[in-house]
Amino acid sequence: MSLETSLEKVQIEVKEIDSCTRKMEAKYSAELVDAAFRDAAKEAAKYAQLPGFRKGKAPLGLVMAKYKDYILDDVTKMLQQNAFRRLSEDRKLDIVSFGAMNAPEKPAQGKEYAFSLDVEIAPSFQTPEYKNLAIATEPGETYEQHYAAQLEYVKNLYAEFLNVEDPAVQGDMLKVSYDSDFALPEDASASLKRAVKAEEGWFYLNEPEQIPGLLQAMTGAVKGGEYKFTADFPADWREAALAGKKVNYTVKVAEIQRRVPIASEEKLAEKLGMENVEKLHEFLKNKTENELEQAKKQQVKAKAAEILLGAVPDFELPKGLLSMSTQREFSRIAEQLVRKEEDVEAFKSDKEKHLEKARTEASKKLKKMFVLRKIAAAENITVSQEEVDLQIRHMSAYLGYKEKEVRKMLESNGGYSEIQSDILMDKVIDFVASQAKA
Prior knowledge:
Elements: H1 3-7, E1 11-18, E2 21-28, H2 30-45, H3 60-66, H4 68-90, E3 95-102, E4 113-121, H5 143-157, E5 160-163, E6 173-180, H6 190-196, E7 198-204, H7 214-218, E8 226-232, E9 246-260, H8 265-271, H9 277-310, H10 319-337, H11 341-349, H12 351-379, H13 385-399, H14 403-413, H15 415-434
Antiparallel strand pairs: 1-2, 2-4, 3-4, 5-9, 6-7, 6-9, 8-9
Helix pairs in contact: 2-4, 5-9, 9-15, 10-12, 12-15, 13-14, 13-15
């Protein structure tokens, strides 16, 4: 009998703690523990190098003595993982998270080995009807409206900046020289130097601001004018040396340039590298049709999710999973609201309100996840490793980080499971929406 077959004899008792929590108590007999030690020692012996013996030929007793810590770790993992597998396979539990494990003693030869583990399982509820949903979409932009907006957008996108004598308004480009009272360290980077002083530079009066307070301070500025303002850099500012600092700036305006849209369709076609205006119209026609179709699909998907969730009464969520999800939502809220030091106290004073908001949002997301997950199981919808890898590559390109850096970040914060879940949810909603009746 193989070791794997022998380990199937593990005694497992499952106790219900609440609707979504089970306590697994696993016990191995001394004979099974000894078999696990022998199997781990045999595996270690294949690579063991002991004086006086050829590689892989050392007696098991010597191998056990020499590599006892390694073998103990191997046995512990073997026994625990086998129990987890038996729990999910034999008891058919849909485990969604693991709690704290309690193992009073480590495995030892000639002794029984027992441990317990709390696990959370998916909540029980009836799968809603999800095929051939009747979905009515709201009327959106007409083809003509969207086409006109696209034409205007492209004209502005390829607009030219021309010098003006008028006071500066939002969207203008200002050619300036500027200085500040920030004391540059000797080893200051080029980007830090540019952030606090320049003989010649350009300020774009738009969001996001190049310098905090720039937009308000320089709106209304005139050519030849000199302006002073104080920049209050938030604690998470991208230039670490300026984070949380107050810096006084003096700015002199040399030129004001304003974006002037391209009025002629012929000139716009030329800017886009197109042969003629007809090609421009064909391009805009295809773009308009694609975007309107995508907007309609997104509306159908949103309504499909709304219908599905509305068809399922509220159910109890796994407490540990809800707690972790709430903490993630709370962290997101904090990132949005705490931008500078004075935001901290205001955030703390409203902590309970923010926590309640985070808990509500986490509950909604988890309910949606469990409903769509159940449909995924019924329809055998899965996520491949290739799909996860593609999403990580897209994230890397968007964030401007190397792919290996993004992967390391995801490994440290448990982001892989979130990516898999997000992809799965999208695939399920796509499936439901594709079968919906308009």
